[in-house]
């Protein structure tokens, strides 16, 4: 028969029947007693509560095992999180970036090809400026998710350059934090962070040693397609470095990779007319060199970011969530028209959402 204490938010207390009669325990102690009793069925009931410290020791050993096992994945499976920026009587505190990183299901999102680049971009932004704002468990989750990303790239042999740039950014940030600002800004033992930096160097070496297996040439290849289809495929590439790499495959593809209209469309896709007018480059023939202009614009301005799937923020109920499909959301929204109040969240907007 539980009853409430003076603070109505406290767990309360319960009466438990023992061999010596009825005794009063708090709810947390009662739960520990039940788990301890199931593990000690052979012992006498008279000694259960006398040896209550045994249950506390077991719980402490489990906690120490979780903290010491750095490779143990600690992922949450929630699909949404309420973003609150005020401290109320019912809910204390603020929603932090570390809490959002823990609660949202980033582990399974990596396996989705539509969300992979989005997750990698988030990891890169956190590595550059927000790593110290994460809690200890959030930093552990960050490294576990990063390890899962690297293992996926090593198995699929895709997005190698993207992950290599992420690891370089993270390693530079950790070097500046450890050497410049000191170890006090990082949660945990400094030796643990040194070990993580060594793991990053190991991952970089593994990525550099990847030998991409050539496909079986029995079927049709890209060069067997008509020229118009080859050019159409190149126009769907959003990174100029991919176009340059594709042009190194064969002389015919190299000729197509130098197409002026191809680079012109790529410049207008990523940059505005005002930005393009400030970085005009004319070649020897008196024509605009769109290829050189693109790489110069990339060094001066950020490129346009486009992802297959992103996190969505509901302006009506202030919930950040992963969307199941285009017409199905997985958060408890009370609005009549959920599509009008749900907006996609870019990686930088995700970081800014938790700045106060």
Structure described in brief:
The protein is of the alpha+beta class and 356 residues long. It has helices spanning 27-39, 52-68, 97-103, 106-109, 113-130, 136-156, 160-181, 190-208, 227-235, 240-247, 251-257, 260-270, 273-277, 290-300, 338-341, 347-352; strands at 13-18, 21-26, 80-82, 311-314, 319-322, 342-345.
Biggest sheet, open or closed, and with what strands and sense? 4 strands, antiparallel
SSE sequence, one letter per element: EEHHEHHHHHHHHHHHHEEHEH
- The order of strands across the largest sheet is 3-5-4-6
- The chain-level structural class is alpha+beta
* Mean pLDDT across all amino acids: 76
Q: Give the termini separation.
A: 45 Å
Low-confidence stretches: 1-10, 28-46, 48-52, 68-76
What percentage of the residues does DSSP assign to strands (E)?
5-15%
Q: What is the tally of helical segments?
A: 16
Q: What integer value in Å does the Rg equal?
A: 28 Å
DSSP, total strands: 6
Estimated helix fraction: 40-55%
Query: What's the shape?
Result: elongated
By oligomeric state, this entry counts as single chain
Protein name: F-box only protein 32
InterPro entries: F-box-like_dom_sf, F-box_dom, FBX25/32
Pathway: Protein modification; protein ubiquitination
Subcellular location: Cytoplasm; Nucleus
